[in-house]
Specification:
The protein is mainly alpha-helical. The protein has 3 helices and no strands. Helices cover about 60% and strands about 0% of the residues. It is extended and about 45 Å long. It starts with 9 loop residues before the first helix and ends in a 7-residue tail after the last helix.
């Protein structure tokens, strides 16, 4: 039985190395390191996948919590 090692990212990288490197070069050449067509495409495809009209990719889970709290009217202590 093979042991599962979740911190070994090299196997997946080596399997898809060419695809990863080509996409990284595409993004670098586009000049859009934040947002851009790649993010728009991902958001559109993911929204379709989960069955919703809209999806917004965020920088972190903390950003997601902050937005959710604001939408729910939950404010921090001041």
């Amino acid at each position: 039985m093979e042991r599962i090692m979740p911190n070994r990212l090299d196997r997946a990288f080596l399997k898809y190395q060419k695809e990863f490197e080509e996409k990284a070069i595409d993004v670098l050449r586009s000049g859009w390191y934040i947002l851009g067509k790649e993010v728009e495409g991902f958001e559109r495809e993911f929204a379709e996948y989960i069955g919703t009209k809209h999806y917004a990719g965020l920088a972190s889970g903390l950003d997601a919590l902050w937005i959710a709290f604001r939408l729910l009217g939950i404010r921090g202590m001041r």
